[in-house]
Design a protein that fits this description.
The protein is α/β, with parallel strands linked by helices. It is built from 22 helices and 15 strands. The strands form 2 sheets. It has a 9-stranded mixed beta sheet, sandwiched between helices. The two termini are 40 Å apart.
Amino acid sequence: MIPEGAQGQAANGNGGDAVSRIAAELRPIVNERFADKDRLLLPRQALAVEISGIVGRELEERGATLNILERRSLIALLVAEIAAKAEAERRIVESQATEALAEAPAPSRTAEPASPRSQAPTADTPSQLAPAPVATHQVGARAKQVSSARNTIESAKNRIQPLVVDRIDLSTAVKLDRAQLTHQIAELVSEVLVEQRIRLNQREQRDLVEILLDDMLGLGPLEPLLADESVTDIMVNGPKQVYIERHGKLQLTDVKFRDNQHVMNIATRIVSQVGRRVDESVPLCDARLMDGSRVNIIIPPLAIDGASISIRKFSKKGITLDVMARQRNITDPLATVLKIASRAKLNILISGGTGSGKTTLLNAMSQLIDNGERIVTIEDAAELQLQQPHVVRLETRPPNLEGEGEITMRDLVKNALRMRPDRIILGEVRSSEAVDMLQAMNTGHEGSMCTIHANRPREALTRLENMVGMAGISLPGKAVRTQIAAAIDVIVQVSRMRDGVRRITHVVEVVGMEGDVIITQDLFVYEFEGEDSDGKLRGTFKSSGLRPHFTPKAAYFGLDRPLLEAMT
């Protein structure tokens, strides 16, 4: 366990003490993880990635908070210790290999007693190579050394980066993989450091090369945030202000860019990877990172204080309905009903506000789709991560410089109908594509899913009706509502509450029409009951106990009995 008060110390500026205490607690876990020799002999970069994941996971489980610099110090400290063990292990392996290959002494030669000098332990003796135990009082001093080294590296980076970039042949660099480019950059860095009379040890030089590579190939100062699994959102508000969301709460980080142009360079790199652009003529853009994380970028003159980058990170942990039940986002009976709704090919509308977890829930529910079905996904920026083998992913395209060539979501929905899909999954319904989506749901494409921005289930139906009007089709209101009632089976309302936890607040079934009104019935409702001492909300996911209108569909798939059991 992390000692009580470690979180508060980190927040109050006692970063060195917090890093020291937490390092002492995490060291046994890291050592156990790398007890296997094969894992210990991984490249240093692989060690750093694994240790970073361990640190992020353990800090999250223990509720400890460190800022970015403290987290880097902690990771660097643990990596250094494991790297020392790895180096010792490598020497042992090399020594054993050398002894195995050595020729045996000639039989006729008489062995002579070893002299005192020959009996002295060598540098390759295993006992000499075992790293000495690190005393607790030494950890604080080492953390301070790491912090000082970091400042030295940052200062050196600011001085030599322009000189290194000037000597790089970019046309050649882009053709190299990261390992080759790392070698080339390391040589250039060594030359420039000598010329500028800057003294760095080998570890500092390696860290400097990694930072330069992140700036050249990655997303620069954002790379540590992207590697931190506890961070769910990254919000860049100009060069000097970067916020993150962790555990549902916003936090200001100490990450900074050099200037506005540095932010623009990173923004351009993001959008160019997916064939889009952002400039004065197109000052806002939706894009995605290579791992599926969603990105929105808006730049001056629309963004007055400098370019703004908003990244919704794609979780590397697979979020399923069972995981949501364990995290108390839902209950087991509610998870069962959602599983049956997905498996029984109901048309599902997921409703919620910005950042409420609609796409995460859509991903989780899509895992219940049968592997034998053909699925077509349609998004503005592809972020859905379906696990089925037969998935066709479609993505909209913005207009070119001449204002031509735009492919809208409605175009893709129309085209998807000609692709023989079993299910169509629409990332988000925003406009006139609602007409085509409803037609698809009403013409044999059962089991389709989509998301919509709305605060309540009834409001989601109203918004859907308004979007049909955006298509320019003149239909009576009753006709539109009749089509919606026939198309949508279930509405799932998800919300991010004030304690930062996402919860499903309503599961509503669309029953049909009565006059001009769409009739619905609640299956589950979250009822707020109070607040715990730690600030977490208390409530109950209450079942209405009603027999779902889609019970015959569930019976067709042999799921009616578990459905009725879950409702009771």
